[in-house]
Write a structure and sequence with these properties.
Layout: H1 5-10, H2 25-32, H3 38-48, H4 53-62, H5 82-85, H6 93-106, H7 121-131, H8 147-151, H9 155-170, H10 176-200, H11 213-220, H12 235-242, H13 247-266, H14 273-290, H15 294-324
Helix pairs in contact: 3-14, 6-7, 7-9, 10-11, 10-12, 12-13, 13-14, 13-15
């Protein structure tokens, strides 16, 4: 495993209450191009993929990635490289590739795309499954509808489906950090979804992403802790966050929880790729909040940080007091 002593030692220090990031995520990634190994670059790229979801979902919702019209004359240059397709018509190379995958799926063809920097496998699978037609039986007068028919205008449902494919890909990563980070984010998302559904009187089972044992308990358990206290050490903190009704404050608390989780993970991995990946994620957090209302957002964030520091100091004093008795 590669070590990045010089890189880590030279990075500006980041704290959760920094008013703004010392550099952008784009600048940081650019600096890493000639430093990371090929394998480690692929790990960073996987973390970056989530930012692409907005574009892909936008193509579907806007109709730029439409239900295919079957015609032998249609050719979207399936499998072509970015260089080969650049400048052809007005479509982005990725959109052209996705359209061909959608058409192949609608024609009943298997997915042949194996993943590339232009289009990762999980996004290709998502589009293929969205447009794939179920088997047509002799009793049916018309071919069954595809998932695109029911989801194309439901942005939240599409987002849930795409993120499920992303988590499936990430939890199979060769990197323990990527796997655990994806699991943390999936669990956090699912638990908050269950609390929201309970408040609204909805059945949460269809909104939960994933099919593992944790997800099954979230779908079926009526206990407040979902019988997951032993499996998820961070569950109490998530439950406290779920009680927060102020959306902006809750988002800040979520980011702080993730920040502390990364601090714990990298404590003994100071010069590993994990710390580089965490630095990118911390920059992403600071970058996102610095783009919001600085006056309101920064004040709220600092209040949370100070309150958490106060809670930590109180716990430490209580511990010391107990040791003296």
């Amino acid at each position: 495993m590669a070590k990045y002593y010089a890189l880590i030692a030279g990075l500006p220090q980041l704290t959760a209450d920094s008013p703004r990031p010392p550099l952008s995520t784009e600048e940081f990634v650019h600096e890493l191009d000639d430093i990371l190994t090929r394998h480690d670059r692929s790990l960073l790229r996987l973390l970056q993929r989530e930012a692409e979801h907005k574009e892909l979902l936008g193509w579907i919702s806007s109709g730029e990635l439409p239900l295919p019209v079957l015609s032998d004359e249609v050719d979207y240059s399936y499998g072509a490289s970015e260089e080969e397709t650049e400048g052809q018509e007005s479509l982005a190379p990725k959109l052209r590739l996705l359209r061909q995958i959608a058409e192949d799926a609608y024609r009943g063809k298997r997915l042949h795309h194996r993943g590339s920097d232009l289009l990762p496998l999980y996004q290709a699978r998502f589009v293929h499954d969205l447009f794939a037609r179920p088997e047509h039986t002799e009793l049916e007068q018309e071919a069954p509808k595809v998932r695109y028919d029911e989801l194309s205008q439901d942005r939240l449902a599409l987002e849930d489906l795409l993120v499920a494919y992303y988590y499936d890909e990430a939890t199979k990563s060769s990197s323990p950090f990527i796997r655990e980070w994806a699991q943390l984010n999936k669990n956090l998302r699912n638990i908050l979804v269950v609390f929201t559904c309970r408040r609204l009187g909805w059945d949460p089972s269809s909104f939960i992403v994933g099919t593992g044992s944790v997800e099954e308990k979230l779908r079926t358990s009526k206990a407040k802790d979902f019988d997951l206290s032993e499996e998820l050490p961070y569950l109490p903190e998530i439950l406290r966050i779920a009680e927060e009704r102020d959306i902006a404050r809750r988002e800040r608390l979520i980011d702080l929880m993730k920040w502390r989780w990364m601090d714990e993970w990298t404590f003994v991995r100071v010069f590993d790729i994990d710390n580089v990946l965490c630095y990118y994620l911390r920059l992403s957090i600071l970058e996102r909040w610095s783009e919001l209302d600085e006056a309101t957002g920064e004040r709220t964030f600092r209040e949370i940080v100070l309150s958490l520091k106060g809670e930590s100091a109180k716990v430490l004093e209580d511990f010391k007091r107990q040791q003296r008795h």
